[in-house]
Amino acid sequence: MRFLCVYKPGVPESNAPPTAEEHAAMGQLIGDMAKAGVLLAVEGCLPSSFGARVQVDAGKYSVTDGPFPETKELIAGFCMLQVKSKAEAIEWTKRFLALVKHGTSEVLALHETPAG
To answer: Which pLDDT does position 8 carry in this prediction?
Structure first.
């Protein structure tokens, strides 16, 4: 089963890069995921000031440039996992959240593409 884990920090954005300690801890977790064969992709997002939100309503588009002031709207990164169960995806997500110490991760099951 594949899962998309989307991280929402729940705190105001910062342009500060991770500390050396934070970088090393995250590198260890990513290495553990790779070694376990569950990691398909992982990326951190730049601050929302580099992005935009595109919406459509009845065929009319609107574009809102970042930054986005509501912390609940911010997405700071994601990973895609290939695991045996939702419970396993949740356990990896808990390890991630233990490192970042705040925020929410949504663990979303993905449609499986039929083999062929």
So the answer is: 93
